[in-house]
Amino acid sequence: MINQALLPPLSRYTLALLFALSFNATHALPKVSAVPGGVVVIELAADNAEETPAAYYHKKPLLVIKKDGRWLAVVGIPLTATVGAQQIKQQSASGKIIVHSFNIKDKAYKTQGLTVTNKRKVNPYAEDMNRIISEKKRTKKTLAHWQGRELKDLTFIAPVKGRHSSSFGLRRVFNGQPRKPHSGMDIAAPTGTPIVTPMAGTVTNVGDYFFNGNSVFIDHGQGLITMYLHLDRIDVQEGDILQQGDLLGTVGATGRVTGPHLHWGISLNDARVDPALFLSDEK
């Protein structure tokens, strides 16, 4: 067994990533991608083999899962993250703070130009703004929620069958006007196509949003939250406990869209990350 404390910082980082990559080959964990919008998996120090360690990234609690007797922190990296050295902090049972370092590499996301026929969805009217601001606050609260649920693995299935029409991280330009980067994966499918739950969880937010249309949010525990936007029909309500594969609604074209599709987003420790990293058949 290698004593990581005796290794220089770069070697410890390399060892951690190699461990995570080899672990992903045989266990249901997200693929490691140390870039803005990506995910890293870091092995934590184990003070107590039975007690879940607490770890934080930018003061936000991290998802921690136990695999083969080892505690792993699964860290979501926000699209706004600074390239270079980063740290997570682990609080030991004795109160000692242990720092784990990793490095973020740059990634150049492409630009996508889209034409939205409903110009109000690009330049909202003054009377729309109160609704938009209220919906942003509600969404922010939903994605910041922490549910201390034990997770055995992070096995995901695709929520819908269809063509990936728009990838995560694209720099979006609507009707010639730059907007925020794309924070999810768009899957094009005909209106009415069933959408299923990729992983068990609790429905925490259901509503009709100005930009997102008919929307469902599912809390899977420990800051892992998924969102499903632009639905035609919603078949669940807040408080429902769903199992993997349960129907949650159907594909639609509500909100700001160019055609029927599902926008599928994943938030991890309140950072929007690439859903493709959670699917085993994605490269």
What does this structure look like?
With 283 residues, this protein is mainly beta. The protein folds into two domains: 4-104, Immunoglobulin-like; 111-278, Glucose Permease (Domain IIA) (Distorted Sandwich), CATH 2.70.70. Helix content is 11%, strand content 38%. It has helices spanning 9-24, 129-143; strands at residues 39-43, 54-57, 60-61, 63-67, 70-76, 84-91, 97-104, 111-114, 163-166, 171-174, 177-178, 185-188, 194-196, 201-209, 213-221, 224-234, 241-242, 247-251, 261-268, 271-273. The strands form four sheets. Strands 9, 12, 13, 14, 15, 16, 17, 18, 19 and 20 form a ten-stranded antiparallel beta sheet that branches. Strands 3-2-6-7 form a four-stranded antiparallel beta sheet. It has a three-stranded antiparallel beta sheet with strand order 1-5-4. A hairpin with a 2-residue loop joins strand 2 and strand 3 (60-61). The longest helix is centred in the N-terminal third of the chain and has 16 residues, at 9-24.
Q: Secondary-structure map with pairings?
A:
Elements: H1 9-24, E1 39-43, E2 54-57, E3 60-61, E4 63-67, E5 70-76, E6 84-91, E7 97-104, E8 111-114, H2 129-143, E9 163-166, E10 171-174, E11 177-178, E12 185-188, E13 194-196, E14 201-209, E15 213-221, E16 224-234, E17 241-242, E18 247-251, E19 261-268, E20 271-273
Parallel strand pairs: 8-10
Antiparallel strand pairs: 1-5, 2-3, 2-6, 4-5, 6-7, 9-12, 10-11, 12-19, 13-18, 14-15, 14-17, 15-16, 16-18, 16-19, 19-20
Low-confidence stretches: 1-27
Query: Within the CATH hierarchy, at the fold level, what is the topology of the largest domain?
Result: Glucose Permease (Domain IIA)
Main beta-sheet annotation: 10 strands, antiparallel
Shape annotation: globular
- How many domains, in number, for the residues? 2
Percent of residues in beta strands: 35-45%
Number of strands: 20
> What is the helix/strand order?
HEEEEEEEEHEEEEEEEEEEEE
Distance between the first and last residues' Cα: 31 Å
CATH second-level architecture of the largest domain:
Distorted Sandwich
Radius of gyration: 19 Å
CATH class of the largest domain: Mainly Beta
Classify the secondary structure makeup into a structural class. mainly beta
Helix share bin:
10-25%
Total of DSSP H or I helical runs spanning 4+ residues: 2
CATH homologous superfamily annotation of the largest domain: Glucose Permease (Domain IIA)
Q: Roughly what is the average pLDDT, rounded to an integer?
A: 84
